[in-house]
TrEMBL record, chain A:
It comes from Obba rivulosa. Signal peptide: none annotated. Keywords: Activator, ATP-binding, Kinase, Magnesium, Metal-binding, Nucleotide-binding, Nucleus, Repressor, Serine/threonine-protein kinase, Transcription, Transcription regulation, Transferase. It comes from the Eukaryota. This is Cyclin-dependent kinase 8. It is an enzyme of class 2 (transferase). Residues 32-345 form the Protein kinase domain.
TrEMBL record, chain B:
Its main location: nucleus. This is Cyclin-like protein. GO terms for molecular function: cyclin-dependent protein serine/threonine kinase regulator activity. It is found in: Nucleus. GO terms for cellular component: nucleus. Residues 248-264, 349-366 have a biased composition (Low complexity). Belongs to the cyclin family. Cyclin C subfamily. Residues 243-275, 336-371 are annotated as: Disordered. GO terms for biological process: regulation of transcription by RNA polymerase II. Residues 47-140 form the Cyclin-like domain. It comes from the Eukaryota. SUPFAM superfamilies: Cyclin-like. CDD domains: CYCLIN_CCNC_rpt1.
Length: 448, 423
């Protein structure tokens, strides 16, 4: 007996340890009931969930587990997940989405965030599609102010977000802006490696600062400020201000010259000038930019931002803020702190704590739509072995029993049936585990 | 957060007291004859992390982070119920990511296998997924707190050269990008002007503290200041300077008028003039830290060196231990004197006890094969002994779990029943 036991332990000395940990671990579905699926992004899926303890609603972001064929296996936690987790564990601010907890379970990572009912993208859609009217200057100002306020906190903590865009900026039902998605964010405090070394491309193209488009290897917080400018302009006009076509990475993963995106910027802000931006001529893509200027268009562009603002941001001061967020030279571009000091925020109407304060109830954007996702669920399903575990725990209510079960069990991989993973759609999960909630439709169905 | 230790997870959740650490070793203590062996294990594994880190070309700060992860893991776990070798590898792997300088998992696995093989560990899994699995559990045990503060930062902020980037320094650790803001230990003003060799020595002392659990008990800035304090005492030429200062009132040497007032905070001294020697003692006194605490910490570091003195790990050239023969205090002196000869590539990973005087090493061979039989006479502990010890601990633990009469309350009779049922 002992021989077999020690055989197992010698072959896999961490077996006892894992068994103990697995046994003690609270599973996601023990603590939360899944209400529906919100979104699927680059790194994973986001679900709406309710705490079984206090009924508070959360958003659970599940990182895609890696797969080898059909079998989910451990391949190492992605840099992006490590980042998002590490940063979120340290920060806490009213205007940054709060991380409640992280659950590691069944080879997957679940980040449990406070729930935000809206996001900037949705607000923009709501105004352009449903209301067909612009966001009021009061709301625009409050959104921008709170966004900058959250950004100031991040920047003071030496964090660059590097992916600010409407979809990543959330709003709670009580109208508080929350910066989310720190999956690309980075600490800039005493980096061991230059920023560009880790990630070749940062920031979604429409929100990408000119220094990045021109290949700058050293960039800083100013890239976030540029993105804030783009977001503010988009809130004001309900469409992206610089909606360029992204040139894709070539087969060797070289980052191409983003000609179209730059032209979109130049059309509004004019061609950048070395006199205003001394570092310009040292940027890798400077020559490309020069060529573009003289071959593709007859004359260099003029700054038409004031004209652009005329019809879109009525109060003069709002336009002035935008102008300063769009200063080409990153060293002269406003900082988050300076932006918050801008006159626009000091004059009536003042930004409000609840961004929807001035909005009539029938014009507040609708609740987030949630669906049942059809794809193989990312939420855990009580797997064969864990059901067995649960039974044993019930019958014997003893950690040791569990331990022995683990120790004597077959190889971990064989306990993991591929079947459970692929069939388990989200609908079948909620049908199977929700206390009284049987009969959920299995097909994709709108719930919100 | 990056500037604010006091609001960090490190401060809020991972500053532990002695009682907690004692409790953490309670299980292990049952399986060792001498509690000191556990302290030797702490040295051994820190060295191992450092070795593996160097093979993976990790910077010193990454190695330090990996070591802190390892220590935190063993606050919650026992050596006798785990395999510390795979934990070591996972700590390096995660730390590299947490410090934004990732290494490929394949490399970690192959370097770990190679390195651990030298210690007779043949069971390290070649399968990447095993290490990845360990990473997963490790991150869970670390409670996802992956941002760690280190004394290096304080050291460089206090003593770092303002402008020039010395060839020996690691760019990231030199305070590149330091923004203004309140220092959390003092006024935020001024720099301590130490000679290059002295700063290096303080850096090495900091490296050495990771061989103990001090990083779990004391905030990093206290460790840094203690390292500086010890340097002032033991760095030969720095000590001489201080002695000269305290014996005669500080005056600018050389041609300048002897009536010049004593200088404090002389970091603002103009370059064009002959530099007045800085009032080092005054600078230290001006730091907003408890000198009693610094004294206690100094004592702890010195006892670490005393313990370390009885640990031999000399199967590779880089851990040549000539310094040992001279006893701990002279080792300090030797290290201080020897710092000028350090090799650029490894300068930052050195140790006061062993790293700096690598040229004079006389490694004794065969320690690896020595399974510790001669321990009693030699009063020296070797890696081979410790590896053997670990194995025995684990076996004994297992046996205890199988025989409840002799062991811990693990209800192992149930386990055996199940085992029988399972065939
Ligand atoms: N806390 C939250 N509350 C509600 N919805 C959220 C929350 N976090 C994210 N979402 C939704 O999920 C989407 C994707 O989340 P995000 O964190 O941006 O992940 P990704 O890295 O995949 O972009 C968001 O655009 C938003 O619509
Ligand atoms: Mg996103």
């Amino acid at each position: 007996m002992l021989d077999e036991l020690s055989y197992n332990v010698v072959n896999d000395p961490m077996r006892i340890y894992r068994a103990k940990r697995d046994f003690a671990r609270k599973r996601v579905t023990d603590k939360y009931s899944i209400l529906g699926f919100i979104s699927s992004g680059t790194y994973g899926r986001v679900y709406k969930a309710e705490s079984k303890i206090d009924r508070v609603v959360h958003a659970i972001k599940k990182f895609k587990p890696d797969k080898e064929g059909d079998i989910v296996t451990y391949t190492g936690i992605s840099q992006s997940a490590i980042r998002e987790i590490a940063l979120n564990r340290e920060i806490s601010h009213e205007n940054v989405v709060a991380l409640n907890e992280v659950i590691l379970e069944d080879k997957s990572i679940y980040m449990v965030f406070e729930y935000a009912e809206h996001d900037f993208l949705q607000v923009i859609h709501h105004h352009s599609q449903t209301l067909r009217s612009p966001i009021t200057p009061t709301v625009l100002k409050s959104l921008t102010y709170q966004l900058l306020n959250g950004l100031l906190y991040l920047h003071n903590a030496h964090i660059i977000h590097r992916d600010l865009k409407p979809a990543n900026i959330l709003i709670t039902s009580s109208g508080v802006v929350k910066i989310g998605d720190l999956g690309l964010a980075r600490l800039t405090y005493q980096p061991l490696q230059p920023l560009f070394a880790g990630d070749k491309v940062v920031v979604t193209i429409w929100y990408r600062a000119p220094e990045l488009l021109l290949g700058a290897k050293h960039y800083n917080k100013a890239v976030d400020i540029w993105a804030v400018g783009c977001v503010m302009a988009e809130l004001a006009s309900l469409r992206p201000i610089f909606k360029g076509e992204e040139a894709k990475l070539d087969s060797k993963k070289n980052v191409p010259f983003q000609k179209d995106q730059l032209l979109k910027i130049f059309e509004v802000l004019g061609t950048p000038d070395e006199r205003d931006w001394p570092g310009l001529k040292d940027l890798p893509e400077y020559q490309n930019m020069k060529r573009l200027d003289y071959s593709d268009v007859e004359h260099s562009y003029q700054n038409r931002l004031a004209e652009w603002c005329q019809s879109r941001i009525r109060p003069h001061q709002g336009g002035d803020l935008l102008r300063q967020l769009f200063i080409y030279d990153p060293d002269r571009r406003l900082t988050a702190y300076e932006a918050l000091q801008h006159k626009w925020f000091q004059e009536e109407p003042l930004p409000s704590k609840n961004v929807f304060q001035s909005v009539p109830a029938n014009q507040i954007p609708p609740h987030r739509r949630i669906t049942h996702d059809e794809a193989p669920s990312m939420m855990p399903v009580p797997a064969a072995n864990s059901q067995a575990q649960a039974q044993i725990a019930q019958v014997q209510a003893q950690a040791a029993a569990h331990l022995s079960q683990q120790l004597m069990g077959s190889h971990p991989l064989s306990q993991q049936s591929g079947r459970a993973g692929s069939v388990a759609s989200f609908a079948s999960l909620s049908g199977g585990t929700a206390a009284g909630g049987s009969g959920h439709p299995r097909k994709k169905a709108r719930m919100g | 957060m990056a500037t604010d230790f006091w609001s960090s997870s490190h401060y809020k959740r991972w500053m532990l007291d002695r009682a907690t650490l004692r409790q953490a070793r309670a299980d292990d203590l049952q399986y060792v004859d001498d509690p000191e062996y556990l302290d030797f294990l702490a040295i051994f594994f820190a060295n191992l992390i450092s070795r593996l880190g160097k093979k993976l070309q990790l910077r010193q700060r990454v190695i330090a982070t990996a070591t802190v992860f390892f220590r935190r893991f063993y606050v919650k776990n026992s050596y006798c119920e785990t395999d510390p070798f795979i934990v070591v590898a996972a700590c390096c792997y995660v730390a590299a990511k947490a410090e934004e300088s990732p290494v490929h998992i394949k490399n970690v696995v192959s370097e770990a296998r190679m390195l651990f093989g030298k210690y007779g560990i043949k069971s390290f899994p070649s399968d990447n997924s095993k290490l990845a699995e360990m990473e997963f559990y490790l991150v869970d045990d670390l409670e996802c707190d992956l941002t760690v503060f280190h004394p290096y930062r304080t050291l460089m902020t206090l003593c770092g050269k303002a402008g020039g980037n010395g060839g020996e320094t690691e760019a990231g650790e030199l305070g590149v990008g330091i923004q203004d803001g309140q220092r959390y230990w003092g006024t935020g003003e001024g720099k301590l002007e130490l000679e290059e060799g002295a700063v290096q020595m303080a850096w090495f002392i900091i490296n050495d503290t990771y061989r103990s659990e001090l990083c779990l008990i004391y905030p990093p800035h206290l460790i840094a200041i203690t390292a500086i304090y010890l340097t002032l005492v033991f760095h030969t030429s720095t000590r001489a300077t201080i002695q000269a200062q305290t014996q005669s009132p500080p005056t600018s040497s050389g041609a300048s008028a002897s009536s010049s007032p004593p200088t404090r905070r002389s970091s603002r001294t103009a370059n064009s003039h002959k530099k007045a020697p800085q009032d080092i003692v005054g600078f230290m006194a001006g730091l907003n830290v408890s000198m009693a605490l610094i004294a206690t910490l100094s004592q702890e570091i010195i006892s670490l060196y005393a313990l370390w003195d009885r640990y031999r790990e000399d199967h590779t050239a880089e851990s040549a231990r000539s310094a040992f023969a001279q006893g701990q205090l002279s080792a300090f002196g030797a290290a201080g004197a020897g710092t000028s000869g350090k090799r650029a590539g490894h300068a930052r990973s050195g140790s006061v006890l062993s790293g700096t005087t690598s040229s004079g090493g006389t490694p004794t061979t065969g320690d690896l094969k020595d399974d510790g039989a001669g321990l009693a006479e030699q009063q020296v502990v070797t890696p081979a002994f410790l590896v053997h010890l670990l194995l025995r601990m684990r076996e004994a633990r297992l046996a205890d779990m199988a025989h409840p009469a002799t062991g811990r309350p693990m209800a192992v009779n149930k386990m055996l029943e199940r085992a029988q049922a399972a065939g």
